[in-house]
């Protein structure tokens, strides 16, 4: 797996030691890449996440992303794995792009983990933060490879805590600066303004409820 030249969230000046061959493929050492990322984002990634509007809002749902994989050519990783991790298929080679941060990855190989590679190359992607949390991102960029933690979706016991967008799932995020918690983790990446007060969303906190 490789990233296209010009990774959006990791400044190129910090990863100059990652060589790119004549075919445009990145020949990187994973430990060196992690070190370079830490130099940019710090040893500890500070969140709340700066909420950036999804670059490709037409692919905000997993169904819309899956539909782009009609002619997917690479059996090393499944379209479902990639779509769940936020990617849609570009139609070129095995190049996929995150609907939210617009980072593109290609050259997938057997045993690649879409969530891990997404977090490795785009540690500041709001979608990754919302879906996986900061501990997962730090484990990928700072120490050892990790698998995405399982997320248990709990049916909300009170309509007050039901997502105001899908009207089904439990609220999972809080917006800044309005402080409203009105959307689930699946709907939040597609939101640019608060559904309740319509103020612009500048940041987002991931919530964790304790039973």
Automatic annotation (TrEMBL):
This is RING-type domain-containing protein. Transmembrane segments: none annotated. The keyword Transmembrane does not apply. The lineage of its organism: Eukaryota, Metazoa, Ecdysozoa, Arthropoda, Chelicerata. GO terms for biological process: regulation of cell cycle. InterPro entries: BIR_rpt (IPR001370), IAP (IPR050784), Znf_RING (IPR001841), Znf_RING/FYVE/PHD (IPR013083). Belongs to the IAP family. SUPFAM superfamilies: Inhibitor of apoptosis (IAP) repeat. Residues 163-198 form the RING-type domain. Keywords: Metal-binding, Zinc, Zinc-finger. GO terms for cellular component: cytoplasm; nucleus. It comes from the Eukaryota. It holds the Pfam family zf-C3HC4_3. CDD domains: BIR. One of its GO terms (molecular function) is zinc ion binding. The keyword Zinc applies.
